[in-house]
Amino acid sequence: MAAEIVNPRTDTEQPSQGAFPIDPVFALHRGGKMEVASTVPVRNADDLSLAYTPGVAEVCTAIANKPELVHDYTWKSQVVAVVTDGTAVLGLGDIGPEASLPVMEGKAILFKQFGGVDAVPIALACTEVDEIVETVVRLAPSFGGVNLEDISAPRCFEIEERLKERLDIPVFHDDQHGTAVVTLAALRNACLLTGRRLGSLRAVISGAGAAGVAIARILVEAGIGDVAVSDRKGVVHAGRDDLNPVKRELASFTNSTGLTGSLEDALAGADVFIGVSGGTVAEEAVAAMAEGAFVFAMANPTPEIHPDVAHKYAAVVATGRSDFPNQINNVLAFPGIFAGALQVRASAITEGMKLAAAEALAAVVADELSPTCVIPSPFDPRVAPAVTAAVAAAARAEGVARI
């Protein structure tokens, strides 16, 4: 009897009850969430001779003689590598490369759905900085950009910086910069809604990891009055002797008022709370913030300050969750940022391009601005085109565009 052939994409059998509960999530993920599809027909010998040998040799020879033609005659200028080592996956932590693949596949389909950008998930079986850098450098000829994802801090900072030095294509660590871009956009609109200036605000960030550092940096670039960052041991300041190199640099451009002590101490009189760390902030500390404060409590699934508490004291409240208004969601940023960078074949993603993305994102909801709408929905069809156009224009203005 012939063996039964099971199609993993159509077979509906679930994992046994003993392994995992029967759940529609498993049904959706069975066989993966992606596939490779051809953009050209291969119906007969003539098609085959054009798509593959002997015709393909002409294109290979042309690219060998003029390497920049690779952008015109391959998928390179339209595809991003989504790279992880599985050490900081969502809120799950260090779960390894295989277990990270469902998330990386998800990221890849978000690139396509929201930015029209093809992406390939790449989970690496290595965690040493040197090995990751060398591996990505060797993979880079196949891609127009690299999106680093779910790599633990502080290694993620060094990996990104070294790849940016080695490669002439955009390298973007989304956990850092995507979060920062969307946060700045929401903060700009909160200011517009309440008639305040970014330059008059004092912000406190809970969390000195990838997202916290990047948010602090973009807020300073955007001209915020002051921003202090707190880690597990309290406010990051130059007088501490326990700071790693990343936090020492952070201390050099933040906390200009010289705050010390705990997160709660720093919140007294603060205009903005930004949470990217988890944990819980006491209601008394929220009550001590400035009148009409902004609370962006973005930990998932449990915000540092529950919206019910935040609304007692804050003029604008945002979270990282989709079941509350004003979700700070990276999908608002990274698809359009990469689409804009790839559109002009940018050699890098600059600070100016990120600032332009934040401004464009904020402008999408200008006419609908309200306390429950300072940031658009990920499903707003205006988002990706606005961000793409702004990033492409900024790349040209900053001299990193090649077309």
What does this entry show, briefly?
With 403 residues, this protein is of the alpha/beta class.
Summarize the SSE layout with pairings.
Blueprint: H1 24-29, H2 45-51, H3 55-65, H4 70-73, E1 79-84, H5 97-115, E2 118-123, H6 129-139, E3 145-148, H7 155-166, E4 171-173, H8 174-194, E5 202-206, H9 210-222, E6 226-231, E7 234-235, H10 245-253, H11 263-267, E8 272-275, H12 283-287, E9 293-297, H13 307-313, E10 314-319, H14 334-343, H15 351-364, H16 383-397
Parallel strand pairs: 1-2, 1-3, 3-4, 5-6, 5-8, 8-9, 9-10
Antiparallel strand pairs: 6-7
Question: Which characteristics define this entry?
Answer:
single chain; 403 residues; alpha/beta; 4-stranded parallel beta sheet; 42% helix; elongated; disordered N terminus
Tell me the distance between the termini: 60 Å
Largest sheet: 6 strands, mixed
Strand content: 5-15%
Helix content: 40-55%
Tell me the total number of β-strands.
10
SSE-based structural type: alpha/beta
Major sheet: arrangement of strands: 7-6-5-8-9-10
Care to describe what's here?
The chain has 403 residues and is an alpha/beta fold. The chain is built from 16 helices and 10 strands. It has helices at 24-29, 45-51, 55-65, 70-73, 97-115, 129-139, 155-166, 174-194, 210-222, 245-253, 263-267, 283-287, 307-313, 334-343, 351-364, 383-397; strands at residues 79-84, 118-123, 145-148, 171-173, 202-206, 226-231, 234-235, 272-275, 293-297, 314-319. Strands 7-6-5-8-9-10 form a 6-stranded mixed beta sheet. α9 (210-222) runs parallel beside α10 (245-253). Residues 1-12 have low confidence and may be disordered.
